[in-house]
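Risk register update: the risk of archive-format incompatibility is retired. Evidence:
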Amino acid sequence: MNLRGAVMKNASPEHFAKDLFASIVVFLVALPLCMGIAAASGVPPALGLITGIVGGLIVGAISGSPLQVSGPAAGLTVLVWEIIQQHGLGMLGAIVLLSGLMQLMMGALKMGQWFRAISPSVIQGMLAGIGVLIIASQIHVMVDDGSKGSGLTNLLTIPEAVYKGLVPPDGSSHHIAAMIGLITIGLIFAWSSLPERLQLVPAPLVAIILVTIGAEVVDAPVKYINVPANLLNVVSFPTIESLGNWLTWPVIGSAVALCFIGSAETLLCATALDRMHNGERTHYNKELLAQGIGNSICGLFGALPMTGVIVRSTANVTAGGKTRVSTILHGIWILGLVVLAPGILNQIPTTALAAILVYTGFKLLSPNAVRELKPFGWQEVGIYFATLIGIVVTNLLVGVLIGLGLALLKLLYTFSHLEVRIHHESDPDDITISLDGVATFVRLPQLAAALESVPAGAAVSLNVERLYYIDFACLDLIANWCKQHVEHNGQAYVPWKELQSRNRNREAASATESGLVVANASGD
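Archived output:
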């Protein structure tokens, strides 16, 4: 479907006005973030604008989630920076292109739903870890200094950046940049605290406009961003040599990391967005295909990778967007500004964009995540912090793999753990055996030992309220024990219907139950 066809198909008189307004709001939210994320990733801001344009015009027209807005994402900032440090800026396009082709393949194989199965504790830990790394790197940029290397190094050298901002070396302007950055953050918080009806213009854009005007008035001696008059001047097509590196494991690993993390962030964003509106639901495989096409195009241009972005998507829904027209139009507005008035963008202080990223980092590092995970057990909280710390100490991919590994171990534990508790009532011969967890052949010796410890002639009740699953081996064990116990003048109260409901092999469970009707005369 071409761009005109996408607009005409979705446009209607009652929706177009709302989509037009929403597109302007999304444009105002996306503009500073596109440039700020690019700067934080270590690439020219123009490359972030190109990704925003492709995300609006191309992906917006074919996406499986019509109201989701795609573009450069803070969640990939750290990974892109690491890729550039490892492979160089010239390899970025080739790696983004490869990751896009991987997404296309996964979409064609209908793997979109699999990304929804990632543990929330891993996702929350990943976002928090990214937030820490963004804050650590951008605090240095806020004082017109450069990143110090790894995320851990940036974190440990924050006192040095603070010192430069307070006590700058002779002749430097670090303190001026720091002041502009702090004013930017202050303006964002102040504008965000106003009543919602007054917040038609997003807080980050208000802050950018005011500090840009202020810096221009006083002619502040700080660094400014540089957006060329012609975006084609920053386009860098992959070379034969860079494409040849696709066969090397480091490049493949970087592309897999981009593909996996970008796809997970996109599809989880789409899931969250579906809860915010009553319109068309997300087609996950179609969305994965659209992201693959978008990232392939961005890779050909040497631009930043893209994902579905929750901040811009939420702004779209909140502003009243009804169809994909709002997403497409926001891409048109970005393209129009860059083509018609690039000089305006060059007046923005770099420290102001860094301040916006610091603010974004604090939002990613949300304490609510721990409170939300706590009801599901301390194991989930542990996975969250392990993922966060792993990302900060090592890198994004290793940290996510640590989280996924721990989540898998928890899953294996859950599906192999069985707790057998024996309760003696007031009468010593009145016994309740409670089964908690999962009863499989792995735990059969434990279950057998508990049953065999019951004295002959006792009245035994089996409590399975907290039993999630039981396999045929354990059912057969209970059946044989029950038969022998009844033959020795004992009583056994076994809820066979409940056990049957906890066994996926219904026919085997039914056969076991029917074979015990006589032996379990006192049972359910």
